[in-house]
Design goal:
Helix 3 packs across helix 5 (about 155-195). Helix 6 (about 210-215) links the parallel strand 5 and strand 6. It contains 8 helices and 9 strands. The strands form 2 sheets. Strands 5-6-7-9-8 form a 5-stranded mixed beta sheet. Strands 1-3-2-4 form a 4-stranded parallel beta sheet, covered by helices on one side. It has about 300 residues and is an alpha/beta fold.
């Protein structure tokens, strides 16, 4: 856990004080994980002429790991790197190597795109367009909850420590998740390479994260369904959306199946072993692989 210090001479890392944001909070969590050091100074007055070369300054001072200068480094998509992104760019691959991961380049890039870039974008005022009838909280808005509220007596430093502790846990879970996705992506691509160009479904021997891989393959626009063993027993079959941004299914399960289960669903579908169909018509459950093939044969003629 990080420790807040009061002087530059004590500090391993220096960032700004005041209102905290996901950018410097996750940057701090990452630095602690990578360097194994934990002394942080939060200030708005860095004395660079007295600064040790071993101290890392970020999100303040307009140095290597700040983004407030006019000529701040940008990604290819024009999103400016913030302190978290700049530190991940500088140290991320070496960190992954030290943690014992393989596929370093692919893993680093996946984490950057899946997680780091979004925090950088939010910190620069590039917010996601969310079409929902309810309020959606981003990871950045969740971290802002740790700022002391106007009517509380919460200590700013204590709240920052709490935020970094939460961010550290989240970020390492992101790394583990991303590692699984990278490995799965390779495996699913190998399976897709074996599927005929006219085949409309993919059957997995075990569950693998598959959706992004399929949607990133323009040569597999024919895939309508994926079946896999369910952790509830039997098999699940799920629809495939039209794209990464359009979640409309390429093909829904039949309307008359929606919300049915058991004998009633078997009767309506004429398929023995078909046990459940979600009201949203994006997933069905089957007792066994035999019934999976019956469903797919019926829908993919």
């Amino acid at each position: 856990m990080i420790k807040i210090v009061k002087t530059q001479e004590e500090a391993d890392f220096i960032t700004h004080s005041g209102t905290m944001h996901a950018d410097e909070v996750f940057a701090t969590a990452f630095l602690e994980q990578y360097f194994g050091k934990n002394k942080v100074l939060r200030t708005n007055n860095v004395e660079f002429d007295k600064l040790s070369t071993k101290v890392i300054v970020y999100d303040i001072g307009r140095g290597k790991f700040d983004h407030h200068q006019v000529d701040a480094l940008k990604r290819d998509n024009d999103i400016t790197y913030c302190s978290f992104g700049l530190l991940w760019k500088e140290f991320g691959k070496d960190f992954l190597k030290k943690e014992g991961f393989s596929n370093i380049d692919s893993l680093w890039e996946y984490i950057d795109k899946d997680f780091v870039e979004g925090i950088d974008a939010d910190d620069n005022g590039v917010f996601p367009k969310i079409d929902a009838i309810y309020k959606v909280k981003t990871i950045s808005s969740i971290i802002k909850l740790f700022n002391p509220s106007f009517d509380s007596d919460e200590d700013e430093s204590c709240q920052f420590i709490k935020a970094v502790d939460v961010a550290s846990k989240i970020f390492y879970e992101e790394i583990l998740y991303a590692n699984g996705k990278v490995i799965a992506d390779k495996n699913v691509n190998n399976l897709l390479d074996e599927v005929g160009s006219d085949n409309k479904f993919l059957i997995l021997d075990k569950f693998l994260p598959y959706e992004e891989t399929i949607l990133n393959r323009e040569d597999k626009n024919n895939i309508l369904f994926v079946a896999f063993p369910s952790n509830r027993g039997g098999y699940a079959i799920k629809t495939i959306p039209k794209s990464l941004t359009d979640k409309t299914a390429r093909m829904d399960f039949p309307e008359e199946w929606a919300g049915l289960e058991g004998e009633e669903l078997e009767k309506v579908s004429s398929i023995k072993g078909l046990t459940f169909c979600h009201t949203g018509r994006f997933i069905v459950s089957c007792k066994d692989l035999k019934s999976v093939y019956k469903v797919l044969d019926k829908l993919c003629k």
